[in-house]
Specification:
Elements (H helix, E strand, L loop, with lengths): L3 H8 L3 H14 L26 E4 L5 E4 L9 H11 L6 H14 L3 H5 L3 H8 L18 H6 L58 H9 L15 H27 L11 H13 L1
């Protein structure tokens, strides 16, 4: 199993790790002198060991404070002694500082996020280690997230992996030279219409004759049906009126025939004659 030192050395070969370390240097303001940067921007005379000097500064809350930060990643003296001692780093040189920075990312739980290119998560987890990050809890000047993202290569931000081209819809190619058919009109289509049944022959003098005819004319339920029409009182009245007119016409024709005439006006008849006509109508 690889040691922490070997893990850090291997991680330094990853381009995401190198990009993140370059961003840290820009955020900490150490680009000019790099690994030889003292707190405040001065240049260190040597890199054989951490300088172990205290420099005063004013916090963003107005209070005075001191710091021993130094190097490309601004290691505090106590932090450097702890990391360098456990990893047995020989000096304060560039390779030692890079290894120590990766170890600090590992301790903060941010290294895996860096390796995968999830820099936002890595920044969020590293704020307690580097005061210049926007996630830092310390009362010191911080960089904006826009600044942080601007230091990172666009193709590495968030570890975005290009998605494969979407699979086109499986639509068959159009048929070459399709044959255009003339339109088919509704009148040319075969029909399956069932003719309406003829009205039953009900004697006009039979009690309830009109109601019987109306009931017979209503569509009977034949399975399957989609919906049975609903007859309203108005529909019934209109149908009764039409049937009454037909009965009146039929009665008038019967009276004319009874008297041997082509046409008889609609006049009141004696009851006995009217009864005779009714019996006649019942027979036809």
């Amino acid at each position: 199993m690889a040691t922490r030192l070997e893990q850090a050395q291997q991680a330094l070969q990853n381009p995401n790790v190198r990009a993140f370390l370059d961003m840290l240097a820009a955020a900490e303001g150490t680009v000019q002198h790099g690994y030889a940067t003292a707190f405040g921007g001065a240049k260190l005379p040597a890199l054989n060991d951490h300088p172990r000097t205290q420099t005063g500064f004013t916090q963003t809350d107005g209070k005075r404070n001191t710091t021993s930060a130094a190097g490309r990643y601004q290691f505090l003296e106590d932090t450097w002694d702890d990391v360098a001692g456990k990893l047995k780093l020989p000096d304060f040189g560039p390779q030692s500082q890079d290894i120590a920075a990766v170890e600090l990312l590992n301790r903060a739980g941010a290294l895996q996020a860096v390796l995968s290119g999830d820099f936002d998560t890595a920044v969020q987890k590293s704020g307690a280690t580097w005061a210049s990050l926007p996630s830092s809890p310390y009362p010191q000047s911080k960089r904006s997230m826009d600044f942080i993202r601007a230091q990172l290569p666009p193709n590495l931000i968030q570890g975005v992996t290009p998605m494969p081209d979407p699979i086109p819809n499986q639509i068959p190619d159009p048929i070459p030279n399709p044959i255009t058919l003339p339109p088919v009109w509704a009148s040319q289509l075969p029909t399956t219409t069932t003719p309406a049944p003829a009205a039953p022959m009900v004697p006009a003098t039979q009690p309830g004759a009109i109601g019987a005819v109306m009931a017979a004319l209503r569509p009977q339920q034949v399975a399957p049906i989609e919906a049975e029409p609903v007859f309203t009182a108005e529909d019934d009245a209109m149908l009764a009126q039409g049937l009454a007119a037909d009965v009146s016409t039929q009665r008038g024709q019967a009276v004319a025939k009874f008297f041997g005439e082509e046409y008889m006006p609609d006049i009141p008849l004696p009851d006995a004659l009217d009864a005779s006509i009714s019996r006649y109508l019942a027979l036809i």
